[in-house]
Amino acid sequence: MLKIRLARAGRRKLPFFRVVLTEHTKSPQGGYKLVLGWFDPIKHITEIKVDAIKEWIAKGAQPSERVAKIAYKKTGDDFFKGYYTERERTKAVRNPDKFS
After folding, report:
1. In 3-state terms, what secondary structure has residue 82?
2. Which are the contacts of 66, defined by CB distance < 8 A and separation ≥ 6?
3. Is-contact 80 57, C-beta < 8 A?
4. Which residue, 22, 36, 55, 58, shows the most beta carbons closer than 10 Å to its own?
5. Residue ranges per domain, the chain?
6. CATH homologous superfamily for 2-83?
7. Going residue by residue through the chain (100 aa), what tens digit of pLDDT does each one get?
8. CA–CA separation, 67 vs 20, rounded Å?
């Protein structure tokens, strides 16, 4: 099965991710078939080929949750919203007795 996921690049403490199409059994940094874009979490810059991602999904590839979130944030297209779940973020307090 083909997956569309992130492959980390860049150096230590300066992450940079490629959006790649790869076989699900291979490591993301290993061999990948196609680069569909990139994502820079430090500068919050994203360049993805949305048409190519939609085309590969139509052929049966599965996007990871993170790729679907990035694509949805970039395009605002509800097509990608079905591939991830919205989770409510709650901050947990480690020792609640300490703050009472």
Report:
1. helix
2. 5, 6, 84
3. no
4. 36
5. 2-83
6. Ribosomal protein S16 (3.30.1320.10)
7. 899 999 999 899 999 999 999 988 887 677 778 999 999 999 999 999 999 999 999 999 999 999 999 999 999 888 998 888 888 878 776 766 665 5
8. 10
